[in-house]
Amino acid sequence: MAAGGVAPAAVAVGELPTVVAVAAGLGLLVALGGIWAMGRLRTRSIGVMLAVVVVVAVAATLAGVVAIIAKMIIEGPVKDFVLSVVAVGGLVGLGVAFVLSKRVVRESRRLVDAVREPPFKAPQGLPAELQEIANTLEEAYARERALEGARRELVAWVSHDLRTPLAGMRAMAEALEDGVVSDPATVARYHGQIKLEVERLSAMVDDLFELSRIHAGALRLSRARVGLADLVADTVAGVEPLARAKGVLLTAEAADAAVPVEADAGALGRALGNLVVNAIRHTPSDRAVVLRAGVDDGMACLSVADCCGGIPEEDLPRVFEVAFRGESARTPTADGGAGLGLAIAQGIVEAHDGVIGVVNDGPGCRFEIRLPLC
Ligand SMILES: Nc1ncnc2c1ncn2[C@@H]1O[C@H](COP(=O)(O)OP(=O)(O)O)[C@@H](O)[C@H]1O
Ligand SMILES: [Mg+2]
Description:
Layout: H1 9-40, H2 46-70, H3 77-116, H4 128-178, H5 184-215, E1 224-227, H6 228-246, E2 249-254, E3 260-263, H7 265-282, E4 288-296, E5 299-305, H8 341-351, E6 355-361, E7 364-372
Parallel strand pairs: 2-4
Antiparallel strand pairs: 1-3, 4-5, 5-7, 6-7
């Protein structure tokens, strides 16, 4: 053996396959140990994981060196040099891992602090994955806040809408109980009025229930092949008495009777019914409401056109909001709703993968439902 312990080159080359095989075997063992350790530590700080990565890298390198030493290819001072270099490399790796883990930990703390301080605003300059989490969180919080605001507004309006008729009913019931009213005509009128209010309140509670199911994503649709013409015919049959009572001319044009959609006939009929009832309510007597069904742009299309005189431009984007009512509809009347009808219609149409919209057109407005054909 040459002075200084350096093995002759010929020997080193000859030993290469063995050294590689031993190093690979030991490296595999080290890697398995590292993976096992990562599994055990998976809920610990990223800093600990980075330390494991560095230890594994150093240990795998050491395994190779051990293989070389075992074959006596190097020994003496050279062995010490090689071991020292590996040790220094390991320390440098650990140092960098330490700095990196401090940074990752600091940035995740920054994210956690931001989350704890409402209203949440995504901190900027985070590592890519953390930034993505922060941005997603910001969107989710904003959505939550908007929903919360809408819910609060809904509760305020609904409790107002419930309280007004309840106060009236209590007054009438007390008057009947105390015998304050006794002439048969007034007694009959009070009874009729109480029954009407009860029906209106029940409808409102049903609407609220439906809406909360839609918002909870719990709307159960039993979808089947439905022809739009049948849907229109059923809807017209249901609202005919209301149109007649108001003197509104209700007509239906189902151009292509066979337009098929995959829909829950009950739910979709309810959505269309809400549109038609609104149209009739906002159209003066002797004017027309027209229902159309057909295919447009490769989509099944249902539309309801009325003669309401147009919806104010600033209200157009808001009519589908929960509890939104136009100014004229704010004061509760016998046939007034709670501003839930269009929100329900929108929820049902979207659950069918469709879209609903409204435009001002001619003497009034036109609501349109578009659904995928089947
Ligand atoms: N066909 C229509 N013509 C004019 N305005 C309408 C029509 N449909 C809806 N609107 C407006 O949209 C608002 C919300 O409608 P909706 O959600 O059905 O609630 P509601 O009927 O209980 O008021 C109505 O108060 C009204 O201002
Ligand atoms: Mg309505």
